[in-house]
């Protein structure tokens, strides 16, 4: 039963981080005068992942990857 609680907590944490990174990207695109369409957001997040020399937590990387997969559907 504890494993289920941990999985739910991890899923919630991942979901919250996905919402944060997508929201941040929407505001960044808006500030740059770029329309925040689904594919534009996904492409911008892929670009973020392409920069390997930036220090990111494992959670952030997973959240960006999951966000891109979700937006690509």
Layout of secondary structure:
Layout: H1 2-31, H2 38-50, H3 58-71
pLDDT < 50 runs, ≥5 residues: none
**DSSP helix fraction:** over 70%
Shape: globular
Query: What about the largest sheet?
Result: none
Q: What is the N-to-C order of secondary-structure elements (H for helix, E for strand)?
A: HHH
Number of helices: 3
Q: Report the portion of residues in β strands.
A: under 5%
Mean pLDDT: 92
| Through-space gap between termini | 32 Å
Query: Any idea what the radius of gyration is?
Result: 14 Å
Beta strands, count: 0
Return the structural class. mainly alpha
**Multimer state:** single chain
Describe it.
This protein has 73 residues and is mainly alpha-helical. Helix content is 78%, strand content 0%. The chain has helices at 2-31, 38-50, 58-71. α1 crosses α3 (58-71). The longest helix has 30 residues, at 2-31.
Short description:
The protein is globular and about 45 Å long. The chain has three helices and no strands.
Question: Notable features of this structure?
Answer:
73 residues, mainly alpha, 3 helices, globular
């Amino acid at each position: 039963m504890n494993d289920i609680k941990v999985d739910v907590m991890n899923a919630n944490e991942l979901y919250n981080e996905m919402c944060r990174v997508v929201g941040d990207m929407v505001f960044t695109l808006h500030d740059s005068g770029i329309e925040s369409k689904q594919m534009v957001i996904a492409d911008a997040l892929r670009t973020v992942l392409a920069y390997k020399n930036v220090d990111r937590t494992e959670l952030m990387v997973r959240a960006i990857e999951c966000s891109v997969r979700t937006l690509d559907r």
